């Protein structure tokens, strides 16, 4: 999803750095700094609470947290280097291989997990009986999650490292040339653009719209029953994650569709910001998870002194009788005066 940084080995010409790059660098660095402790905190909460890590709806969230945390630790630093220096370091072909794999694999894994989560929420909310046996849970829950993680790994290991073509970077133009299987095979480039991009985004949008409609209809039938509250929480978790995905990556996909169907130069100016915004999704993801966990809100309130300082304590009837009124205070003042 992110751009390939320009590489140079022999030229001494300083790389051109647009005026927007320092702003993009500052924003992404600030988010990434706060993202890592937030990721550790939320992951620890999920993995240390038995009821949370055993709940089927939280498994995909844990995998997404791990994937986005890895992106923040590996992919984001390379992008920060490119923003501030105009080059990616180290300037070697090995780094290009590393960059191809990390960038493609982690982004595709996140998109697949979000797509499956958008579909699985329909089962968890409206057809929970599908998971009433261990065999069904393995077949319809764990295996799809394994496919979301292993399929892109096998796919990119083969096409980046073993596909019969040669990857290289152009030392004269100082750019890391896109992976060779995308340059030499038009069908593979089209497949990846559709299967790993447009199709997943469309499915995420459709599944979430349908889920919203079904949840609203369920609310009208069930009112404020306990089942409704649980279902609402699962739906809000999904909507929050997918909203972040659509918000950060929507502009990039709009540019890609416009360039493919309308004009190859469509949105070139806009893409200077669309791709940096897409890179903000990994470090922002743990904050979205934190905002949807009601259990953590209580822990944070108890751990933060300012919450306890301003806590409102109810007054009993006996205590109310002993509170000084304005009249009694005035009478005591005149008496003592």
TrEMBL record:
Compartments reported by the entry: Membrane
Main location class: membrane
The organism's place on the tree of life at top rank: Eukaryota
GO CC, any one term: membrane
Domain G-protein coupled receptors family 1 profile: from-to ranges: 38-286
Protein name: G-protein coupled receptors family 1 profile domain-containing protein
Transmembrane spans: 25-47, 59-85, 97-119, 140-163, 194-213, 234-258, 270-293
Keyword annotations from UniProtKB, A to Z: Membrane, Transmembrane, Transmembrane helix
Gene Ontology MF term list: G protein-coupled receptor activity
Pfam families, sorted: 7tm_1
InterPro entries: GPCR_Rhodpsn (IPR000276), GPCR_Rhodpsn_7TM (IPR017452)
């Amino acid at each position: 999803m992110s751009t390939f940084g320009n590489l140079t080995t022999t030229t001494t010409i300083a790389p051109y750095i647009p005026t927007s790059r320092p702003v993009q660098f500052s924003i992404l660095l600030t988010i990434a700094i706060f993202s890592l402790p937030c990721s550790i905190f939320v992951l620890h909460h999920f993995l240390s609470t038995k009821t949370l890590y055993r709940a089927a709806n939280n498994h995909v969230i844990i995998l997404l947290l791990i994937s986005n945390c890895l992106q923040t630790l590996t992919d984001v630093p390379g992008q920060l280097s490119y923003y501030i220096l105009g080059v990616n370091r180290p300037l070697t072909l090995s780094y290009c291989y590393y960059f191809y794999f990390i960038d493609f694999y982690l982004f595709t894994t996140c998109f697949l997990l979000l797509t499956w989560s958008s579909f699985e929420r329909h089962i968890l909310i409206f057809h929970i009986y599908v998971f009433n046996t261990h065999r069904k849970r393995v077949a319809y829950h764990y295996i799809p999650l394994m496919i979301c993680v292993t399929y892109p790994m096998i796919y990119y290991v083969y096409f980046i490292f073993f596909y019969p073509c040669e990857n290289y970077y152009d030392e004269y133009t100082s750019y890391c040339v896109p992976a060779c299987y995308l340059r030499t095979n038009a069908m593979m480039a089209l497949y990846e653009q559709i299967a790993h991009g447009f199709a997943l985004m469309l499915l995420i949008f459709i599944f979430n719209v349908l889920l919203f409609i079904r949840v609203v209809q369920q609310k009208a039938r069930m009112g404020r029953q306990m089942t409704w509250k649980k279902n609402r929480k699962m739906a809000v978790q999904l909507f929050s994650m997918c909203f972040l995905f659509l918000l950060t990556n929507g502009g990039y996909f709009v540019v890609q569709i416009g360039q493919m169907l309308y004009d190859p130069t469509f949105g070139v100016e806009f893409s200077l910001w669309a791709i940096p915004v897409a890179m903000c999704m990994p470090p922002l993801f743990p904050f979205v998870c934190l905002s949807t966990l009601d259990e953590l809100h209580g822990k944070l309130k108890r751990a933060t002194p300012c919450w306890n300082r301003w806590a409102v304590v109810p007054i009993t009837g006996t205590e109310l009788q002993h509170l000084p009124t304005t009249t009694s205070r005035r009478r005591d003042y005149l008496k003592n005066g």
